[in-house]
Amino acid sequence: MGHSRYSTALLAIISCLLWSSAFAGVKIGLQYATPLQFAGTRFFIAGLLVLPIAIRINPKYFRILRANYKMILLFAFLQTFLQYTLFYTGINMIPGAIAAVVIGSQPLFIALVAHFLMPGDRMTWTKTLIILFGILGVVLVSFGKDPESVTGQIALLGIAMMLGINVLSGFTNVLVASEKGMIPPLVISSASMIIGGVALFLFSIPFEGIRFDPKPVPYYFSLGWLSLLSAIAISIWITLLKRPGMVVSSLNLWKFLIPLFGALISWILLPAEHPEPITLAGMIVIASSLVILNLSARRKRSNIQEKT
Fold this sequence. Notes:
The chain has 14 helices and no strands. The chain is mainly alpha-helical and 308 residues long.
C-alpha cells in the first residue's frame, strides 16, 4: 500500500479540521460581500496559492493541463462552480443546524454513489452502521447547538440544494479516484479552483452586480483564511483520493469529524456558545463511529495478512 493508514488518518483529520472552521469564516465574509462573488474570489485566490507549488513539483504543468483539459474543466465545473453556487445560495434559505445536518450526511451519499460507480467499493453492514451512527451524531451536535432551528421555517429548495451538494460531492470524489490518467493532485486542485473561481465570479455579475469598494479588516481576514484552508484541505483530499487502493466511501467517513470540530471551535471562539449535554452526546456517537471504522479496518487487514 505504500502509505500507512496512520498518515491517511492524520491528513484526513487535518482536512476536516480546516473545513470545520469554514462556516465561521463564511459568516464573517458574507456580512461585507455578495455570496457568489465572495466564493469566486475565495477559490481563485486558493488556486493561485497552490499554483507555484504545483508548477514546482510538476514542471510540465501547462502541458498536463492541455492534455487533460476536459477532465479538469469537468472537475472545476462540478467541484467548484456548481457545488459552491448551490452552497452559497442554499445556506441562506435554511437554518444553520438544518444545513449542518444535511451537509453532515454527505458520507452516506458518497458511499451510495461509490457503491454503484466504483468497483470494489460496496456498502457493507459495518459501513452502513458507521454511517447511521455518524449521521445520528451530526443531528445531535447540530440541534444541540441550534435547538430553535427545529421549529423554524424550512425552505425545501434550500434543503434540495444541500442534498444536491452531497450527490455532487459523491460524483467528484469518484471522478478523482477513478481517473486513470494520473493527473497530479496539485494540478487538479490548483487549475480547478482557479477556473471555478473565475466562473463563479463572472456568473455572479448579472445577479449580484459588481463592487470594488474598500472592505473592513475582518473581510480580508476571512477571505485570506478561507482561501488558505481551501488550498490546503482540497489539495490534501485530492491527494488522498488518488492514493492506490484508496476506498472512497471509507475515506469520506472522516467527514463526520467536521461538525464535531465545528462545535469545539465555536465554544473556543464564541463566548455565547457553551457545551450542551445533547451536543456532547452527539460528539461521543461520532467518535464511536470512527473507532468502529478503524477497528473494522484493522480486523480486515489482519484477516488478509493471515490468508497470505
